[in-house]
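Repro:
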Amino acid sequence: MKLSELASLLGAEVANFNGNDVDVFGVSTLGEASENDISFVTDKKYTGGLASTRACAVIIPENLAPVDKPYIALKDVWSGVLAALKVFYPNFARKTYEGVHPTAVVDPSAEVAADVVLGPMVVVGPGAKIGAGSYVGAGAVIGADCVIGEKSIIYANAVLEAETRLGQGVVVQPGAVLGADGFKYELLRGRWTKIPQVGHVELGDGVEVGANTCIDRASYTVTAVGPNTKVDNLVQIAHNVRVGENCVVVSQTGIAGSTTVGNNTILAAQVGLADNLTVGNGAVVLAQSGVKDHIKDGETHFGTPSRPFRQAARIIGIENKLPELAAELARLTAKVAELEARLAEKESS
């Protein structure tokens, strides 16, 4: 569409307009944009590429205006970028099939809404329910008595084991496994013996689960992820864990059994949480932290073992000085030894 039309769609106008109402074909980054792309800047620290970008115009925050090229100033840049992406890439959700593929296997007792898409080799088990407008990609398995809410997307080769329950608008990326047995073994007569996991998994509305992520069924009740929480690829959420709403759980994070994560929390990449912990509402745990103690509401933690950020930063500051401190300690130790030798010599005389 024309640049002016796109600006109108975003509820704004093109500023610093040179009169060349170009055709816009897509959205790209500053460095990779062509003359027919629109690009964007979300923060002042990213403005370095504005001078060299070939983009026909940029979307910028209102507090950055003006800039030396056509621009669309918005209060919320990401809302504008999202609207533009939906215009130029309407199939970005990668729905590659329509209708029910002839190789899909659907148990007669399953309830599948009339407009649900089932790709090749999909299996839908007995008693399963799939809501209207949902999409199930090739090779996905929907186990017995699973419930999938309306307008949800289950991508290729994802597995929902029995009794997994998804709210509306849930996205499960390829290869994710929801509802596999929790890791529970006890030593009985000297042998590790499996304890059956008879609970299930529940995801709230708008949850997204990344590729190859695993969320285990509960031992007896429920493993739960709250509404609008976003879980990255390669995350492990163990049995009985409860993650609150509107959280972010980044790649390679592992949450051990029966731990509770509050609302609006962020667990950065490769965070490890021990079992039976409570992470408070609004807490942030920075990358590669190992958490062994409870975290209070709103605290930011870092390190292994994790500590409140300021304390961890002081410890890191001291660690960085250890070579100099070790040298100083050696010097002082030698000086003390010298003084003690002199004192002993004086006392003996």
